[in-house]
Design a protein that fits this description.
mainly beta; Jelly Rolls; six-stranded antiparallel β-sheet; 49% strand
């Protein structure tokens, strides 16, 4: 039988407001964990989260702001409002410009 599961980030399952230059909240929808990250101007993954490249894959939507991405092989890209992006493991990312970047990540399963 088909079902529907509707959630809102106004009532997240997980909220992290104590991150440096970032905040995150997560809702479980069906079998998926969907994250909303807000990266403030000046945020960079390897400076404010951990010093190594990110090892997680991401399938995401950029709701606002801009995100710069550099892969381990040096390939770079930039995603802005309305962009849908897939980022493979082995990357750094940072906020571009003076506007926070709101990044909706659909890449995780609650089955982890």
């Amino acid at each position: 039988m088909a079902g529907v599961d509707v959630r809102t980030f106004d009532a997240p399952d997980v909220a992290m407001d104590d991150l440096e230059k970032a905040s995150a909240c997560q809702v479980g929808v069906g079998e998926h964990a969907v994250w909303m990250f807000t990266f403030e101007p000046g945020w960079r993954y390897t400076e404010h989260f951990e010093p190594t490249l990110c090892t997680a894959p991401h399938g995401a939507y950029v709701a606002s702001g801009r995100l710069g991405i550099r892969m381990e092989d040096g390939t770079e890209a930039e995603a802005g409002p309305g962009s849908v992006v897939v980022i493979e493991p082995g990357h750094d990312a940072w906020t571009v410009g003076d506007e926070p970047c709101v990044f909706i990540d659909f890449g995780e399963s609650l089955a982890w």
